[in-house]
């Protein structure tokens, strides 16, 4: 952290399960104008030139397993290869993020920071004027010391929520540990395609993916566009383009029924209708039901946090992330929390990325965090027949002791100062095992702030000096 000012540039990579993006800025630009941050302006893809601030997390490699394309370019090139039947020598991967969990990223650790999304979004909004914080009252500023606000980060896969307080020296203190669930924007896509599978069957959807991949991608992108456009006040039906010719041929070939008859005999015949031009018209009320589980999941998380009495001064809610731009979500949150001021900043979809760049330039922005879990170490204590289970009884150097004791360092929901370490160390030497174990022990109740713990085990002979 001390050397952060020596770097010429900070780049942020948002490597998501479904979508990814990037942003960067030079150190000199950050010092003069912190918000002078560069990002890909927009990605365009598909026959209808679908536009997005991020690109799909998919990768295309050639026969030598060398890079060919990423994102929308990878999707488009892969579908072309499928059409030309030249795909056998290529490798296409999508939604592969979690498969890399145990692999090494290849970035030197001295050059890498891992940033928490709600934190970076919060940092980004510290630099925005009141005019760019849509929903805030005149004169409101997030930079005033003592200001408390909830951060609701609504991404594609997940929703993450925390509470921050502005403290001295321009830093932030976490007032509530971050919590989240899988009620992000992609769960809406999943429910839409579940309805499609109920109407036409899983076989038809899989055939569309395999035999007409461009048509399938266009359907995915068309739904994404409609998903972003729907509003609470909408009264008219939602009109969507679908790959009618391809779907109709597959239905007749595989099911001996045409698309129209399958739709008219489905449980959704009153909600989804076919137009003469080969498009579908979806009742707006039914279309909104795709959103309800995600919206209810977000509101449930927020209510869980607001039940904490220590957060009674939190009057502002900052909603960020790509899914936060959904009008249905914004209106639902405002209706659920009428006493809170709901703020949606400009560039909400890029707030996490741009905030991560700012965090890279100033990594000490967060003063303290609230622990998600309890942390401690395994130890042993003198035996007490009335206190311990007999199955943990051991003899160590002729002394009766209870093994497998959890020695607490810090408890869940306790505040931890960034950079704090435990100063008291306890050393245990087990001669019978010829092992010296050095661990950090929990010192005193009022000295609980811990950034990390260290346990080092050294195999030595019994005569080795300490």
UniProtKB/TrEMBL annotation:
Q: Which UniProt keywords apply?
A: ATP-binding, Nucleotide-binding
Q: Show the InterPro entries listed in the entry.
A: ATPase_NBD, Hsp_70_fam
Which GO molecular function terms does the record list? ATP binding; ATP-dependent protein folding chaperone
Pfam families per the UniProt record, alphabetical: HSP70 (PF00012)
Looking at the record's lineage, which domain of life comes first?
Answer: Eukaryota
**The keyword ATP-binding appears for this protein:** yes
- UniProt similarity note: Belongs to the heat shock protein 70 family.
Q: What is this protein called?
A: Heat shock 70 kDa protein 12A
Organism in which the protein naturally occurs: Mytilus edulis (Blue mussel)
